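Lab notebook, page 48
Experiment: co-folding of the full assembly
Goal: obtain a model of how the components sit together before planning crosslinking
Operator: M.T.
Materials (sequences as entered):
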Amino acid sequence: MSHRPSTRLTWMLLACALLAVAAAWTTPDVPLGAGGAALLVVTFVWRVRRRAPQAVAADPAAASAGATPPARQRVDAPRSGSASRVRRPSSVPRTEQQALIDQMLQQGRYTLLLRRQLVGNLDREQLEHTLELLHEAMAVVPEGNVRMAQPDWDAVPGHQEPAPGRLVHVAPLLLDRYAVTNADYQKFVDAGGYQEMPLWAPEIWPGVLQFVDRTRHPGPRDWTQGAHHPDLADHPVVGVSWYEAAAYARWVGKRLPTDAEWVKAASWPVAVGGVELEQRRYPWGESLDERKANVWSTGAGRTVPVTALPAGSSVNGIVQLIGNVWEWTTGDYGMWHPPSRSIQAPQPLKSLRGGAFDTYLEHQATCDFQSGDSPLARKHNIGFRCAISLCDLALWTAEEACGEQLVALDDARQLEREESLA
Amino acid sequence: MAIEQAIFTSARSSRSEGYHLVATSPGVTPDDARELVAWGPTHDSLAAAGVEAAARAGRRPVSVNFFPLPSGAFCVSRTTHAGPEYSGRRGPQVYTQCLVVPADTLARFANNAFRLLEAATAAGHIRVMSNVPQRLDPLVLPGRASPVSLSLLDRLCFHPGARRLAAVLRVALSCRCLGIVGAEKPERLLAGAITLVPPECRTQWSFSTGLKVSAQRPFRLTAVDDDPVQRRMLLEREAASLLDMQGELPDELDLGEGWAALVYQTMSAGNLGQLAALLQQPHPGLQLEQLDGLARGWLAQARSACFGQAPPAEVPDSTAAPAEAAGATHAGPLRAAPRPRQHTHPAHERSAVGLAPRAGAAPRPVINRPAAALDPGCQELMDQLEQIDTCVLEAIRGDYAALDRLRGLWPNVARKLDPGLVQESREQYLQYALSAWLEESGQADMRDASRAVFALDVLTTLFE
Amino acid sequence: MRTRTAMPLDSVRLAQFAVPFPCHICGSENTLAATLCQHCSAPMSIAHQVRETGIAPHVVTVLGSSGAGKTVYLGTLLDMLSRERAPLQLTSRGAYSLSLQQNTMSALARCEFPSKTPSEADCWNWAHCQVRDPADRRPIELLVPDMAGEAMQTEADHPLTFPVIRQLLGRSEGVMVMIDALEAGTGGSSQEFLVMKMLSYLSQLRTDRRRKKPDTRPVALILTKADQCEDCFEDPSGFARRRLPGLWKLCQQHLQNCHYFASGVAGCCAWQVEFGRQRVRVPLRLEPRGIVEPFVWLVRHLQK
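Observation: model returned without errors.
Model output:
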């Protein structure tokens, strides 16, 4: 290990310094004592300075992320609760592990740190900071049932009675408050995410090479030179296929939400009378308000920053579930259709939810409307946000460490089970 | 001469897309092709009533169409649904098979498009092709049809009845375009109207039994949906009339003194043979407009010379129950509406009496009454006998369902009848089948073999 | 107290119905009460509207083969222009003008495409509307019929089969040509030949005197279904040049005032199979792109 010679030298210098100080103490030799103290200080400072660059070089991912091509411009737009804001006490000396943790927090991969395998490596301060980032970036979607509406093709849109649909149970999860931005995705690209095959589904390995931007660099379709437009840093990333979205989610330690999870987060079902589920048409209520969602009638004609239109947030503070961009989920399009109707496509279509800035019909930008597209589609109005199951995070360990009250959780291992209720 | 043919439907071919002439036989002229396209029914062209009725019956809707072509030939076409639209849009594909029939070929079938189409269907030429070849072969259609079918006239007397048919004729002859609303079986009604004019006039009536009204297709006779838009579209045409067949006809319906009145009087009196003889008389170059004058002359002649039996004064509608003397031998309908049960079942009445046969024609056998009368109180048996009459008629015409019903009915009835009556019934049915076969062929040596086969099936059942 | 009232005599009313009333499209005489022209099947309400307003509308014809997307484009266009956000403001003349918009949008709202347009002229939808451009004070009256593609093709192959098409093309002051970009992108050439045939027929209908001069009518060549062919949006002209070389050359030679556009209505399409029924093509969502721009270009060139 490269650290051994320097460690041995450090201990030697320390020993010499202590001996000098001891000798000066026994024999009143001021120069000797001062020299020993000085040696102590120098040894300590030198040791601290040598630790920082070695910790970075030990992590190849960090090394590649640290390399900055001089031609690209990257702007990390400040955002409330952004994971890019790393708080590091200046009084504590920085170790390799700390640097790695900081880097992962910088990249928004805080959920990885909260895994059972890694959470024990965090000290209290890091844990607090990680939890803070988690709560700023993600919102809890509680456990419960959600009705997945079955489309009624014969009904007049906007006038039909609530479709019976299928009742699905959703385990508790955390869902991103904001859609993944260009800035967020840039970190994935810069970290070499397109080259890390374990992040990608095996069936798409041969196809990863086709996920390039206008200049043939790995990245979303509309980027150039592997970078986004500088003015669009805080806009949702678009032009990414379902596979790219899934790979990013895996990289940050999360996953794409399931169809039911997305609908539950958006429609916030409430059991009325203990049985009947009342679900919202929109996260904010029952009628479309152009001040709360970026759809065609709003007039923007393009994406807006993910923090825009906060009035359209859901009950638990998730922003822009409706409008701006369609969002990939893990579900298949047509999975809620009755058996008498099926979709035929060259490959199974993946589900899209939420509507986008160019969604023309209001009823297609609602919580229960499902669209779909090819998983290879890289369109100008399709983005995504990530989720993670609460059972995947060691939050009770964090609770013990931080002494904070968190939601008491069941030990649910199953992410989702379906129940058909009459 | 061969019959050329063409397929007009929606398909993607090397030449075009959508509704076009997908395939033609070599003899279709460009002018005729253009006319076929102009008249061609496209998306959603079949009348809604026909589509619904066919859906209830579990079969495809069909429209039989007839119109003239620039070359002097005539188009006899059959339109139906043929599966999904190739482009993925909703609605079935409308498929039309057109037969371009030379005038002399049509004349062989007494200028009756229905008879020609029946013959072509029996020969296997009329079918929906899933893969239409680009080039079709012309058809050769042997056979012919008699100008008049007595069996058809018999059935027409029962349904839709002499009065309704006469009303159709009356209005059709007085206007350029007639739409018929609410007809239960428009094909039978129009077939009846065509049959009830002389063959020379039949080509002057273009018709459609089941297409929507369109300015692109100016048929002279057409069955119309009971739809305000369709009605209005038809009435806006020049000299157009609409005849609503729903419900009862008004009592004061004036049939005039022309052809319609002649048809009504002869049919209601049961003088079908007389009517058939009138229709078979040759009238080269006869126009529809001349029919009324011709009828007036015949009616005057009939009154003065007691031509056949004078019709009754009152309107003997098919639903009425005229009183008849027992044992009267007169040409009467083979099957009439409810009448007093004083005689044997109608199959044993004379079918044609007092007709002067055409020169060279074979003598027509008649169906005599049986010797003994049945118990008039045996209503159930009488009903069953009437049903057998109907089944025999329809089965000989080619209705397999009727043949099946006959097979179920006849053994039960035969058991209840006196053996002598059974034997007599068989003889009468045999004579009827023979007469139907003879009148079908007429003077020519070409006969419709399919009719003989049907008759044999019926007789086999009756004589088992 | 006596009041004077004017009451037309029955004889006057009968005379009105007996007086012939010419069709605005073909000029043939019809009765006053006629709904459709008995010769060309154009709605007679157009003639009534023209008589009331005193303004003859500019005829804009929409050409394209069967299935190119004419009905979907027109219906979506009319709906978009009827909203406040549109760059042009559209006002329909008469209830019949709304049928196309209504039929199309109701079908798309059910995630379906509208039914095929029949070839029978009396089944066509006609849009008669007034268009107002904020950049121009004078509104412009337009008449845009939604004709069946195969009828146009038949007329081009066999002139006078559909007289109304000949009349409309002869009076056309602006043209929108729909070309299926999806089929062109996959290498199909049938679209190209059909459109070239129609444009050639269109140019033939100009009078001899006018034929010597170049055709300056604005012609918008719209590549439809471009949502499934993304590179078409980026450079419609380049796409046409690469995929439709014959059409490109024809337009260069004969059309002085033409422009290429890309448009799309559905974000994604798929085949839907219903048990016991047919397989149909359905749009999975509605996100119109490039719909208004060609029309705006055309209108502004009409006003020049």
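Interpretation: Residues 307-377, 441-445 of chain B have pLDDT under 50 and may be disordered.
Next step: discuss with group before ordering constructs.
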